[in-house]
Amino acid sequence: MNRTEGLVLRKNVVAQNVDRSNNINDDLDKHHSDDQEEEDVDSKETRLTLMEEVLLLGLKDKEGYTSFWNDSISSGLRGCILVELALRGRIELEKAGMRRRSLLMRKVLVKNDSPAGDVLLDEALKHIKETEPPETLQSWIDYLSGETWNPLKLRYQLRNVRERLAKNLVEKGVLTTEKQNFLLFDMTTHPLTDSTTKTKLVKKVQDAVLSKWINDPHRMDRRILSLIVLAHSSDVLENAFAPLSDDDYEVAMKRVRELLELDVEAESMKNNANEAMWAVFAAFIK
Q: Pfam families of this UniProt entry (predicted)?
């Protein structure tokens, strides 16, 4: 091979390598672009708090209000607020001590007092932070609900919680606001505008106890576990199961009962357990 042929051959090899490198970079750029699109889709998806999810399950789609006969949702929503604070690392239970006091006998402490970015959460966190001596978790459910005989504790009540959560959902484009005329009074209602969000929420709850069932609460996503327990406590879980076939409904309810029959004290002692979350469960699973 003469020198000219060698140079031509070398140029061809270099050109092939450049082309191959460009193709790889194009593939990487395309892959990065796909990832970016997925992230964008995730970021655009409506993110709801536990309180908003429970309220959404309880709201009648067209009428835009919760059942007048539901007297459980008020305290259930306060439980959601405390679990949300626990999952966001804002509150914790005091140490169990040598004698291992039960979850509901231990006081709630502020772990991190930085704002949670939600008015209701920040209001509850402020109350817990300012209270001396600290109170138990059961006490906080009662205080935040306004269910206390102690007039000094009435200032801790979170007022108009359902209305404030509904307004959050209006801002997120899930609900709208209307005035409805009942016989003796006018009432502000919040009918559903975005059925996609509620459909996804209902499917998420159904899948958690059917197609994606994990027979171990510590391997379940904490949010979905909390949603199931607190939706049941708020008497709105049935709404998510109403569209199911009879067989699926039986399976779903059987698995919910398994979760409700857990030994919460034992579960709270396992590795990486969120004790404050389990304490809220203990207050509702009596």
A: GPP34 (PF05719)
